[in-house]
Design brief:
One of its GO terms (biological process) is spindle elongation. It is found in: Cytoplasm, Cytoskeleton, Spindle. This is Kinesin-like protein. One of its GO terms (molecular function) is plus-end-directed microtubule motor activity. Helices cover about 50% and strands about 15% of the residues. Strands 2, 6, 7, 14, 15, 16, 19, 22, 23 and 24 form a ten-stranded mixed beta sheet that branches. It has a four-stranded mixed beta sheet with strand order 1-5-4-3, covered by helices on one side. The protein is α+β, with helices and mostly antiparallel strands. It contains 25 helices and 24 strands. The longest helix has about 100 residues. Among the domains are: about 270 residues, Kinesin, CATH 3.40.850; about 70 residues; about 240 residues.
Length: about 900
């Protein structure tokens, strides 16, 4: 989401500006209400007449709180310094100098909107003023030197940190306004940080604890290191220091590109940056000459550790962790964690022990090489991240081993990234950075506004301060909540072209100027002392404490000045207080737990109801689906079996048709017969085979019938009758043999058909098959009948022929004396014999016609022997093998033709 700079600070824009926020803008100038606005908008904490926030009730009473610039009775306000940087030559040539920034006095700044600014346009429409007045703790003009700035801003913080206080200094401003210049410096113009380091080490001369066995960890704890851990620390420290030396020796304008971890290659660290111009901390000879460590605690030694990290695109990167490489690589991010008291700290942050300012300087430079810089349209070497350099001072008492408490104090210097209109960034990565920078600065602004609101409205319920909304505010939270004091340096650039941005930055800082510090370490001491003055249970105040009260005033509220009796008393009071607070908390916790439990129970009940409803609905749905599936299955099964039955019926019809026509080949089993059961497939194959054999038999029968017909015709024709009859006899015999064979085959086929029909016709149109087979049998019977008739005719013919032969013999007897040569053969014994044979055969045939009788006997053993042959033959012809099957069926109960739908369903 692109954000413009119009209100990234939690400040309303000019249009929405509230009088309550920016204090007495109109009231100061005659109370003119809109639309007639005053010419100048006055934004100043000093002009706030309302009583500023008071600290802890009893702390004020005892007068322990330091007086701030806000006047008597106010707690100490947060120091907000303004630094105006000089215009560069190029900027002057571009006409940037339009007198829009004017320092009126040490605390007052006047802004006049230039012609082209947005502010001037809105002012011309009467919406806002074109001039704005701001007040700050101190304003530093363009001519201010680094040394002067240090003296007025950070020098005291260094003193405080050596006394055991924590301090934060952060720079804020539009990009290219001089923040990095102020913190780190440029060339020989060392900034606040190197000066602070030099000052610190000068004060600690001879008091440095050089062993590395005590290391700061977590929020503000100390850990004793094992010898092997000390070695690791030594290696890490030396490698960083060596890295600086190596880099210095190969310095020549090389640029290293680092992968920032999130958005690809976006961080550029230029070796020829401002800091690299100096190999050592360069300060004026007399700048810190008066520094001395006289006010340090007696016998205490100091171990100094530094860390350096940045917040880039809402990710934390350790700037001292990276080993140098010329290859782009992915940097590891760090996480924020909380100790058991809820204090936020950076987990796995590298802390390096330094023993001199030079070492600290080298570490700073080594870390800076890993920092995210990029070129923007306003600044060639713009910081794209918030960089945080921390110095932790371990106050090691002389008898540290004897269990005497060790103390830690910290000085943190934060160089915030410059705010900028994100829409002016054409590069996607720069735009993303700008958005993240603006978002975190916006959160910082909201936090400061909420803190101010809470401080000004003690009687109302406090607002939640959104520290958790950004990494920056989370890591700085402690400094806004009593961990120490914070100071803000607002940097501005007097260029006319960025007037609107400068105005917004100043409005943001105006809110910060109204902040007071949270209860500091000192005020906590005051709080303890105030507890000692609390009325005792019998209503009298502690006399010991009354004595100590004056003393504490005199001794500048130092608790260590109290005598042991008072301290013991204080401890007792504190113990009681702790006990009381614990009990309070327990009651509170019990209430909270009760509420949580009841709410949870409600939620669980609601969830239970919801689940039951869902379960019911699911069950109904599943039931419905199952029913649907069952009905679908039934439908499909029904369809499948109907189809199956239809196909079988068609097959049977085809079979019947084939049997009827005797010429149409039996249709081959369909390709989909694979799905049929094995028995059905076997039956189908057998049927085919049987049909083929039946057809063959019929064809043979037809041939024989034709031959018989031919013979009959031949017999009617005149000719050598003996030859003809004998040939006919042979043929008849042959035909009879064939017929016997055929009948045997038919009998076998009948049996096979019977079994096949049993297997196949149970579920199909068996009736039709039966009819077809009956018809076939009838045809066969008719043919048998014809054959019988033929045989009878043949017998008659033979008898006729015999008679004729006898007649002929009688008529030819006289001629036997002189038989003609043509009849010699017929009068030969062979001939007679043949004739005799023929007669015998005829009589035999007559006595034993037809040859099929034994076959019919075997086929139809039930025929009545008393009947005449012809009747029997007809009967036997009517009793076909299939009719036997039918008869046997009629005797046994018929199988059910089709399985019921119920049995099918049960089967599947
Ligand atoms: N007081 C000053 N005297 C002389 N030159 C200055 C002063 N302040 C800033 N400059 C110069 O102005 C330029 C921009 O300064 P600097 O890089 O410190 O800005 P910045 O606010 O840190 O920018 P960014 O937020 O983009 O990092 C630098 O060239 C610096 O040397």
């Amino acid at each position: 989401m692109a954000m413009s700079l119009s209100s990234p600070y939690g400040c309303p824009s000019d249009e929405e500006e509230e009088m309550a926020v920016f204090e007495s803008t109109a009231a100061e100038h005659g109370g003119l209400a809109r639309p007639r606005l005053p010419e100048i908008s006055v934004i100043s904490p000093g002009l706030d007449n309302r009583p500023a926030v008071t600290g802890p009730k009893l702390a004020v009473k005892s007068g322990l709180v330091r007086q701030g610039s806000g006047g008597e009775g106010n707690t100490e306000r947060v120091k907000v310094y303004l630094r105006v940087r000089p215009l560069s030559e190029v900027e002057r040539q571009k006409g940037e100098e339009q007198g829009c920034v004017a320092v009126q006095d040490e605390e007052t700044l006047l802004l006049k909107a230039p012609k082209e600014s947005q502010n001037m346009r809105t002012a011309e429409r009467g919406i806002t003023q074109s001039m704005h007045k701001f007040s700050f703790s101190k304003i530093f003009g363009p001519e201010t030197t680094q040394q002067q700035f240090y003296e007025c801003t950070m020098k005291n913080m260094v003193k405080d940190v050596l006394r055991g206080e924590n301090g934060l200094l952060y720079t804020y401003g539009v990009t290219n306004s001089g923040k990095t210049y102020t913190i780190q410096g440029c060339g020989r113009e060392a900034g606040l940080l190197p000066r602070a380091l030099v000052s610190l080490f000068r004060k600690l001369q001879g008091r440095i604890y050089s062993a590395m066995d005590l290391k700061p960890v977590m929020y503000q704890d100390v850990r004793k290191l094992e010898p092997n851990e000390v070695k690791v620390e030594e290696i890490r420290r030396n490698s960083l220091l060596k890295e600086d030396e190596n880099t210095t020796s190969r310095r020549g304008g090389t640029t290293t590109i680092w992968d920032s971890g999130v958005g690809g290659l976006s961080s550029t660290s230029n070796f020829t940056s401002q800091l690299e111009d100096t190999d050592s901390v360069c300060l004026e000879p007399d700048s810190l000459s008066h520094s001395s460590g006289d006010d340090l605690e007696e016998g205490v030694q100091f171990s100094i550790w530094v860390s350096f990290y940045e917040i880039y695109n809402e990710f934390l990167y350790d700037l001292l962790d990276a080993s140098p490489s010329m290859q782009p690589r992915k940097r590891a991010t760090m996480r924020l964690s909380e100790d058991k008291l809820g204090n936020t700290y950076v987990k796995e942050l590298t802390w390096i022990q330094v023993r001199t300012a030079e070492e600290a300087w080298k570490i700073l430079k080594a870390g800076r090489r890993n920092q995210s810089f990029a070129s923007t349209h306003l600044n060639q070497n713009s910081s794209r991240s918030h960089s945080i350099f921390s110095i932790r001072v371990l106050h090691i008492p002389p008898q540290a081993d004897s269990g005497q408490a060790m103390h830690i104090s910290e000085l943190t210097v934060c160089d915030l990234a410059g705010s900028e209109r994100s829409k002016e960034q054409r590069n996607g990565e720069r735009m993303k950075e700008a958005n993240n920078i603006n978002t975190s600065l916006l959160t910082l602004g909201r936090c400061i506004a909420s803190l101010r609101h809470n401080q000004n409205n003690k009687s109302r319920p406090p607002q939640v301060v959104p520290f958790r909304d950004s990494k920056l505010t989370r890591v700085l939270q402690g400094f806004f909540c009593g961990r120490g004091t914070s100071s803000m340096v607002v940097n501005i650039n007097p260029c006319a072209s960025i007037y609107d941005e400068t105005l917004q930055a100043l409005k943001f800082s105006a809110i910060a100027t109204q902040l007071v510090h949270g209860p500091s370490t000192k005020t906590r001491v005051a709080y303890i002392l105030s507890l000692l003055r609390e009325p005792t249970e019998n209503g009298n105040e502690s006399t010991v404490l009354e004595e100590e009260e004056d003393e504490s005033d005199v001794e500048d509220e130092d608790i260590t000045m109290l005598n042991s009796e008072a301290l013991l008393k204080a401890i007792d009071v504190l113990k009681r207080e702790v006990q009381r607070q614990r009990e309070e908390k327990e009651v509170l916790e019990a209430n909270v737990r009760e509420q949580v439990v009841s709410e949870m129970m409600e939620v669980i009940t609601r969830m239970q109801d919801g689940f039951s409803e869902t379960l019911e609905a699911e069950r109904a749905l599943v039931e419905e689906r199952c029913e649907d599936r069952i009905s679908n299955l039934q439908k499909h099964l029904k369809k499948f079996y109907s189809q199956e039955l239809l196909e079988r019926d068609q097959e049977i019809e085809a079979l019947s048709a084939a049997l009827d026509t005797q010429s149409v080949p039996t249709p081959a089993p369909k390709a989909n017969t694979e799905g049929l059961r094995r028995s059905e497939r076997l039956t189908g194959t057998d049927l085919c085979r049987l049909r083929a054999e039946l057809d063959q038999c019929r064809a043979e029968l037809l041939t024989k019938t034709q031959e018989l017909t031919k013979l009959k015709i031949q017999l009617e024709l005149p000719g050598p009758t003996g030859t003809i009859t004998s040939a006919v006899d042979r043929k008849i015999e042959e035909g009879q043999r064939n017929l016997r064979q055929l009948r045997l085959d038919i009998q076998r086929l009948g049996v096979d058909l019977q079994s096949g029909e049993r297997a196949c016709c149970r579920n199909t149109g068996g009736e039709r098959l039966r009819q077809a087979l009956t018809a076939a049998d009838e045809t066969l019977s008719k043919q048998d009948q014809i054959l019988l008739e033929l045989q009878n005719s043949l017998t008659l013919i033979k008898a006729d022929l015999r008679r004729k032969a006898e007649t002929l013999a009688q008529t030819e007897a006289p001629r036997l004396q002189l038989p003609p040569s043509g009849f010699a053969a017929s009068t030969t014994p062979g001939f007679c014999k043949k004739r005799g044979c023929a007669a015998a055969a005829a009589s035999d045939t007559e006595n034993r016609p037809p040859q099929k009788r034994p076959l019919f006997h075997s086929l139809f053993p039930t025929r009545t022997p008393t009947r005449k042959y012809n009747t029997r033959a007809v009967e036997e012809a009517n009793i076909t093998p299939y009719s036997r099957v039918l008869r046997s069926r009629q005797q046994s109960p018929p199988p059910s033709p089709l399985p019921s739908a119920r049995s099918l369903r049960g089967k599947y």
